[in-house]
């Protein structure tokens, strides 16, 4: 652009009277401030418009979610009558979405029925005895599936895409399994002094040795789609009997719960550092002091206790996460050792979580073991008349040689029917 001197020289041939206003115009810079102010004002207006339209989109989506929740919970009570359930769902959608912007409720509502898979956390379409209903609200009348903007439309923005989904599942039987073999794993129960708690075998499990368990205070619950199951009727006597039907959904739900629990524990950052691998013997003791009212987390790659004690102290949740980073199987050996719980520590709040595959061995009759073993890809061998309070949930489980097991499930609850619940 021509600078000030050049512009002054260009008009030097003009009469003096004409040159003066031109010179003043060239020297004037006040217009640049006006342009900057205008740009700043437009920026502020854009930010404000975005905030207003975003808040409106959030409110609309929240309203859709509440409507979907109410509709699905109402509809699931009418199952297996899908016609009645559909009518109830639409009735609750209408009650919760009144207003001129919702004039085509049938067009914005998708209702599906099916069977809920607690393991996969998905809805499988089924016309035969459905136990779940999905309600999806994904469009707003006149906005092509989007929430029409209040202000941003001035710059060509066509709105926020939104929707809400709720799946309600009928109340089911809930389980308190003290021994749980994960799907496609194995289970062996052979020669016990006693079992207190339910033994559960998931889909695809092979369990052909169930015998010599005459002091068995609980129920054996078997998925109808196990790979193989057999027992010796002369000396395998669970007081609650053996259930091989009607518990498939409950077993799938319990497996999903345990898998989710293992994954959530594995994601916790460590709070306490111990020697790794942890190896103790010869009467030595190590104390882990818990975070009162919180969660104490330890990461380890190996564990070998032989004639030693690990003392857990305090009213805390204790989580020991075991993982091998090199892809090999890990080892957990607990022999002639003890877990002591003092100063408010509780069995049901202690977790031995095997994130990667481990071979877990708990043996010797002097053992005192406390807590829940979670090993979706691990094997557990527990034998000899040790003192074991807790739970074992693993891929392969072998309990034998006069063992003594007292089951304490890791979460509170009792066998019975759960209320209908929402899955978003």
Protein described:
There is one protein chain. The protein is an alpha/beta fold. The protein folds into two domains: 137 residues, no CATH class; 245 residues, no CATH class. Helices cover 25% and strands 40% of the residues. It is built from six helices and 29 strands. The protein has a 17-stranded parallel sheet that branches. A five-stranded antiparallel sheet has the order 2-1-3-6-29. Strands 17-20-23 form a three-stranded parallel sheet, with no helix packed on it. A hairpin with a 4-residue loop joins strand 1 and strand 2. It is flat, with a radius of gyration of 33 Å. About 1% of the residues have low confidence.
Average of the residue pLDDT scores: 83
Shape: flat
Residue share in helix: 10-25%
Task: Tell me the number of strands.
Answer: 29
Runs with pLDDT <50, length 5+? 412-416
Cα(first) to Cα(last) distance is 61 Å
The overall number of domains is 2
Question: What fraction strand?
Answer: 35-45%
In DSSP terms (H or I, runs of 4 or more residues), the helix count works out at 6
Radius of gyration: 33 Å
Class from helix and strand fractions: alpha/beta
Provide a concise account of the structure shown:
Residues 412-416 have low confidence and may be disordered.
Task: Indicate the topology.
Elements: H1 4-10, H2 16-27, H3 30-76, H4 82-96, H5 105-108, E1 109-117, E2 122-125, E3 132-137, E4 146-147, E5 160-161, E6 164-169, E7 173-174, E8 177-196, E9 198-201, E10 206-211, E11 213-217, E12 220-222, E13 228-229, E14 236-238, E15 242-243, H6 248-266, E16 278-281, E17 285-289, E18 295-300, E19 303-306, E20 309-313, E21 317-322, E22 330-335, E23 338-342, E24 350-354, E25 358-363, E26 368-383, E27 387-407, E28 416-417, E29 421-423
Parallel strand pairs: 8-9, 8-10, 8-11, 8-27, 9-12, 10-13, 11-14, 12-15, 16-19, 17-20, 18-21, 19-22, 20-23, 21-24, 22-25, 24-26, 25-26, 26-27
Antiparallel strand pairs: 1-2, 1-3, 3-6, 4-5, 6-29, 7-28
């Amino acid at each position: 652009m021509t600078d000030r001197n050049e512009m002054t020289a260009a008009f030097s041939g003009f009469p003096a009277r004409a040159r003066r206003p031109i010179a003043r115009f060239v020297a004037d810079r006040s217009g640049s401030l006006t342009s900057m102010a205008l740009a700043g004002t437009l920026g502020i207006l854009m930010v404000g418009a975005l905030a207003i339209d975003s808040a409106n989109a959030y409110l609309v989506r929240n309203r859709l979610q509440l409507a979907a929740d109410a509709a699905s919970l109402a509809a699931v009570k009418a199952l297996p009558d899908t016609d009645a359930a559909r009518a109830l769902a639409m009735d609750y959608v209408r009650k919760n979405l009144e207003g001129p912007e919702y004039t085509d409720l049938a067009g914005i509502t998708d209702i599906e029925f099916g069977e809920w898979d607690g393991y996969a956390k998905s809805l499988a379409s089924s016309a035969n005895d459905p136990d779940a209903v999905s309600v999806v609200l994904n469009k707003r009348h006149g906005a092509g599936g989007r929430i029409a903007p209040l202000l941003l439309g001035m710059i060509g923005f066509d709105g926020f895409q939104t929707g809400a989904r709720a799946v309600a599942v009928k109340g089911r039987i809930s389980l308190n399994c003290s021994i749980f073999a994960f799907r496609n794993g194995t289970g062996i129960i052979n020669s016990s002094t006693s079992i207190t708690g339910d033994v559960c075998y998931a889909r695809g499990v092979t369990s052909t040795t169930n015998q010599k368990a005459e002091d068995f205070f609980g129920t054996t619950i078997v998925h109808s789609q196990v790979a193989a199951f057999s027992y010796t009727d002369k000396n395998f006597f669970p007081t609650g009997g053996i259930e091989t039907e009607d518990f498939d959904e409950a077993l799938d739900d319990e497996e999903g719960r345990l898998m989710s629990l293992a994954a959530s524990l594995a994601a916790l950052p460590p709070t306490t550092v111990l020697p790794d691998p942890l190896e103790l013997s010869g009467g030595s003791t190590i104390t882990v002091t818990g975070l009162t009212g919180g969660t104490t987390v330890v990461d380890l790659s190996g564990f070998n206790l032989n004639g030693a004690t690990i003392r857990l102290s305090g009213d805390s949740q204790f989580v020991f996460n075991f993982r091998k980073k090199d892809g090999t199987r890990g080892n957990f050996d607990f022999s002639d050792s003890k877990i002591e719980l003092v100063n408010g520590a509780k069995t049901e709040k202690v977790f031995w979580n095997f994130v990667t595959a481990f071979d877990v061995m708990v043996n010797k009759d002097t053992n005192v073991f406390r807590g829940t073993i979670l090993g979706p890809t691990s094997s557990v061998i527990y034998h000899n008349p040790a003192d074991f309070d807790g739970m074992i949930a693993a891929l392969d489980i072998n309990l034998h040689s006069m063992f003594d097991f007292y089951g304490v499930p890791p979460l509170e609850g009792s066998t019975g029917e759960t209320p209908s619940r929402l899955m978003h």
